[in-house]
Design a protein that fits this description.
The structure holds two protein chains of two kinds.
Chain A lengths: L3 E4 L2 E4 L5 E7 L5 E7 L5 E9 L2 E4 L6 E3 L9 E3 L8 E8 L11 E2 L3 E5 L1
Parallel strand pairs in A: 2-11
Antiparallel strand pairs in A: 1-3, 3-8, 4-5, 4-9, 5-6, 7-8, 9-10, 9-11
Chain B lengths: L2 E3 L4 E5 L4 E3 L2 E3 L4 E8 L5 E7 L5 E3 L5 E5 L4 E6 L8 E9 L9 E2 L3 E6 L1
Parallel strand pairs in B: 2-12
Antiparallel strand pairs in B: 1-4, 3-9, 5-6, 5-10, 7-8, 8-9, 10-11, 10-12
Classes of the chains: A mainly beta, B mainly beta.
């Protein structure tokens, strides 16, 4: 049981380049989300999904795109990278319902992105 | 809109002394409250949550938190801190309504430094 797997762990881009951050979970969680972490600002929600085929915007969606074609995968696309997108990105998933584990986000290890 | 405030950027405590990390929140409905911990270069790990029931919640690694509805607070506590508790701690909230999904809003984080 791998949990939430993010790739790549590190990436350096030039301004204007595009790339995809991959996120996969093997826990059959309905809910998946992407956050970015910046110093002093905590984690801010970029996009989220409550199931395959359903996505919605979070707090800071501009410049990012997502899709959810399967329950397992939730890739985050940067369309045209900007220096303001330099950050650490976390993917997280959870399931709905009752019980001690319900509604608890399981996080990936993070992807550190630098845009020059 | 929901929000979380962690008023202290850093908390310093001597090993063996009590540890408190403060959190206040704002949410329109009934709150779901969470604490997560982040060790260097790692993803976030779940510590505990409050959904309903007893105001005092016990979690992992000897941590506990007290939900106070009148003060809209959810402070994290540990009776006797360890050097290994040194990390970055995040409080998070979501609206308990189903429409909120599992969209968590995080505070800015509090760095805890436990000195031997």
């Amino acid at each position: 049981n791998a949990g939430v797997t993010q790739t790549p762990k590190f990436q350096v881009l030039k301004t204007g380049q595009s790339m995809t951050l991959q996120c996969a979970q093997d826990m059959n969680h309905e809910y998946m989300s992407w956050y970015r972490q910046d110093p002093g600002m905590g984690l801010r929600l970029i996009h989220y999904s409550v199931g395959a085929g359903i996505t919605d915007q979070g707090e800071v969606p501009n410049g990012y795109n997502v899709s959810r074609s399967t329950t397992e995968d939730f890739p985050l696309r940067l369309l045209s990278a900007a220096p303001s997108q330099t950050s650490v990105y976390f993917c997280a998933s959870s399931y709905f319902g009752r019980g001690s584990g319900a509604n608890v986000l399981t996080f990936g290890a993070g992807s550190r992105l630098t845009v020059l | 809109a929901q929000s979380v405030a962690q008023p202290e950027d850093q908390v310093n405590v001597a090993e063996g002394n009590p540890l408190t990390v403060k959190c206040t929140y704002s949410v329109s409905g009934n709150p779901y409250l969470f604490w997560y911990v982040q060790y260097p270069n790692r993803g976030l790990q779940f510590l505990l949550k409050y959904i309903t029931g007893d105001n005092l919640v016990k979690g992992s690694y000897g941590f506990e938190a007290e939900f106070n509805k009148s003060q809209t607070s959810f402070h994290l506590k540990k009776p006797s801190a360890l050097v290994s508790d040194s990390a970055l701690y995040f409080c998070a909230v979501r609206d308990g309504g189903k429409a909120a999904g599992n969209k968590l809003t995080f505070g800015g984080g509090t760095r805890v430094l436990v000195k031997p």
